[in-house]
Every structure is written in structure tokens, then in C-alpha cells.
Amino acid sequence: MNKDLNFDKQHIWHPYTSTSNPLKNYLVKSAKKSKLKIDNNKFLIDGMSSWWSTIHGYNNKKINKSIKKQLKNVSHVMFGGITHDPAIELCKKLNKLTSSNLDTHFLCCSGSVSVEVALKMALQFWHSQNKIRPKFLTIKNSYHGDTFAAMSITDPDNSMHSIYKGFLPEHIFAEPPKSQFNGSWNKKDIASISKLLDENKEDIAAIILEPIVQGAGAMRFYHKNFLTEVRKLCDKYNILLILDEIATGFGRTGKLFAYEHAKIQPDILCVGKALTGGYMSLAATITSKKIADTICNGPSQCFMHGPTFMGNPLACAAANASLDIIMTNKWQKQVQNIEYIFSNTFPKFLKYELVKDIRVLGAIGVIELHHNINIESFQKFCVKQGVWIRPFKNLIYLMPPFIISNKELLKLLKTIDNYLKRLR
Ligand SMILES: *Cc1c(COP(=O)(O)O)cnc(C)c1O
Fold first, then answer.
1. Residue 111 marked as a ligand binder
2. Residues in Cβ contact with 328 at an 8 Å cutoff, skipping those fewer than 6 apart
């Protein structure tokens, strides 16, 4: 084995990976557009957008240029008592792109942290009104990140709450809606969350949801009426609604934000992942001036959070270029095209007996199998054919960069088909 890869295997801890029995890691030397170049000069077509993030592809000229320009001015400066042009420009853009009630922006350094910030905002919103509301209400199969508070509202089974029991705060989990995005709406889907909300209304600070797409927890797409009904419940009980658009934001589901499918507005919104076009870690928690002022007019007089790298200028410069590309609206055609191709090809996978279900929405395509998949052998097969896809549990899914070509898309689909054919 290559010496460096051997060092990696001995000394570097990769995500969700065993140190005693690590999965194989591939050495990426460079990347361009939709392709990763690995160590033996082989190119892999990327079906994952590096976990939902590199929507405009790798080594994007506009984003590169924006970061280089900022590098000559200032790479980082503290955000306490200081502000800078890239942050101001970014928040102006987010103001324009997100729903009209959202006008107050808190920049932070990762998706999980933006969820922590959203939860703290909700808690402090009630604290400022002399109320203690220590609970959050959410649905099963959700995923909101790996830090403690984010993990506490992530599906109890998927995130292995049992390991951290006694330390993790315990929140309230309703049944997720069964009505699918493209199916008909069953009114009973709202019963579980509605009942739990009524029973715990004095304790709940906010409901938090991934809108429409339950991502890393399940890869399921639910009916938009669920969101509309939850919004109504939040209004009725005067409870905040937090939407986590870290995976879905910036076009992935065919709308700029997934909440637009349901024509609702969140009280607090989390964005991350594709915000910088997948270049750097940056996220934002966005709320209304009214909620922000309520927090700050309370006894603590300010919001108690301040990450060291808050509003990092290089990350803001990457985000500004990425949002400029978004604002040309080319993503709409690109995502529609990916959805069209997925809708025409994914149903064909149902002919294989080991396939339980297929789902397509925007630039996301999912194959659910009856059994868990062997990741290592699947990846070996894919890499041999020149594609990069990383499944989890019993799910093989694609969420390619928006700029992917039809030829590359068909290669991804062909590879999955060849794999399923082999397993048959
Ligand atoms: C990825 C993700 C997060 C966590 O973001 P990180 O940047 O990985 O911390 C939170 N919520 C959702 C819905 C995500 O997909």
C-alpha cells in the first residue's frame, strides 16, 4: 500500500469509521467540475456533491476568483466589534433569497453549530419572557447534526442515543408523516405531532423539522401539507417553528428552499452545506428582527453565542460567489433536467427483487433495498467503473453537482444498474 495511505489508515480517524477495522479510503489529488481525480490518475464522476455541498462543481472559476481576491484583503478577523464587506454582502443576499420575515442573520461555522444556535435562540426567546420551556418537538427519522443538542433531536435509533444516555437532553419525537411528497395527503399524519404538542404545550420551545426531505436519517420525501399543518399548529399554540434547510437549501429539491413547496415561512431557518458552493465550512441561522429583539430585550440583553471563526471572510467570499451563481437562476434548469432523467430511470430499478422502493425529488434520487449494503464492496465496484457513490445502511442515493452532464449522469445510473444486476 502507498505509504501515505498506510499512515492514514494507522493514524487518521475518518467519519463514522472504526480505527480497528477501517474501511478503505481513496486518495483524491484534485477535482474539477463533476470529477474527482484519485491517486492513480483515474477520474471518478461524483454522485454525492461531497455530502450535498458542491452544487456548482469543484474548482469553480468564479468561486476561486472570489476567494483569491479576499485572500489579498483579509483572511480572517474577529467578528466581535468588527464587521467586513464579505459578511455584509452575504447577509444582504440571504435577506433577498429567504422568506420576507427573515431579516436577522447569525453566521456560524458549521451546520451542526447553526442548529445549536437555533435551539439556543428558541430557549432564550422564552427565557426573555420569563418562561422556562426546556423541550423541543420533532419527528422520528430526522437528522440535525452530530453535536450534542443537534444529536438530541436526531432520530433516537439512528444516532445511537443509547451511547450517550444520561448526558443527552431528552426531547419529544412524533411519528413522521407517511404521506409521500408525490402521493395523496392523509390527514391522520398530523395526529401524532398534534397530540404531543397539546400534551406538552407549556414545555415546548419550538418544533424543529427538516422540510420535505428527511435526509441522512432516512432519505424520505414527505407531503407538503404536513408542513402547512405544522405551521398552523405552531401559530395556534404560539410556538416557534425552526426549519433545518442545511441539506435542502439552495435548489436541491427543485425550489430554492424546500419550505417554498408548502408556501410557509419558518421563524428560524438554518442553512449550511451548499451555502459556500461546498468550498468551506460556513452556516447561518436566520430569524426575524422581532424574535431577535425579544431575545435581546430580556434579562441577558444579548444572544449568548460567538464562535471564533464567526463570519470568516474567506468563507463569506466563497458564499457570495456561490450565491451569485445561484442568482443567475441556472440551477432551475439544471435541477429540472436531473429530476427528469432520474424520474425516467429510477423506476427501472424496481425490476430487481432486492429493491424495495425508489424515490426522486429535484436533484435527489434514492434506491431503498431490502437489506443493508456492503459499502466497501459497493465502492470498490463503483471506483472500478469510474464513479463515486457512497451508500449508507440499505440506501443507495445520488445527489450530484447541479452542473453534471447528461453523459456523466447516465454513467452513474448505469453503474448502479450493473451493480444491482450482479447482486440479483
Ligand atoms: C449535514 C446536516 C447537518 C449538520 O451539518 P454539519 O455542517 O455537518 O455540521 C444538520 N442538518 C442537516 C439536515 C444536515 O443534512
1. yes
2. none
Ligand 1 midpoint to CA 5 (Å):
28
Does the global pTM surpass 0.85?
A: yes
Using CB atoms within 10 Å of the CB of residue 72, give its burial: 0 to 12 exposed, 13 to 18 middle, 19+ buried. Answer: exposed
Percent of the chain with pLDDT over 90: 93
Task: Give the end-to-end CA distance of the chain in Å, rounded to a whole number.
Answer: 32
Does ligand 1 come within 6 angstroms of the Cβ of 145? yes
Average pLDDT over residues 72-89: 98
pLDDT of amino acid 205:
98
Name residue, grid cell 450535498. Answer: 52
The residue nearest atom 11 of ligand 1, judged by CA position, is 144
Using a 6 Å cutoff on CB, does residue 246 contact ligand 1?
yes
Contact status, residue 222 vs residue 229, Cβ threshold 8 Å: no
**pLDDT tens for each residue of 252-303:** 999 999 999 999 999 999 999 999 999 999 999 999 999 999 999 999 899 9
Asked whether the predicted pLDDT for residue 310 surpasses 90, the reply is yes
**Residue 173 near residue 156, CB atoms below 8 Å:** yes
The set of catalytic residues is 16, 143, 244, 273
Mean pLDDT of 409-422: 97
Q: Give the pLDDT confidence score for residue 371 in this predicted structure.
A: 96
Kind and range of the H or E run holding 285:
strand 283-287
| Interval 363-376: pLDDT, tens | 999 999 999 999 99
| Per-residue b or e along 82-99, where b marks 16 or more CB atoms closer than 10 Å to that residue's CB | eebebbebbbebbeebbb
List CB contacts of 252: < 8 A, sequence separation 6 or more.
52, 55, 213, 258, 274, 335, 362, 363, 364, 399
What the chain holds in terms of domains, given with CATH numbers, is 3-59+329-423 (3.90.1150.10), 73-327 (3.40.640.10)
Ligand 1 centre distance from Cα of residue 129 (Å):
30
pLDDT digits (tens, 9 = 90+) for 164-198: 888 889 999 999 999 999 999 999 999 999 999 99
CA–centroid distance, residue 247 to ligand 1 (Å) = 7
DSSP H or E stretch at residue 257: none
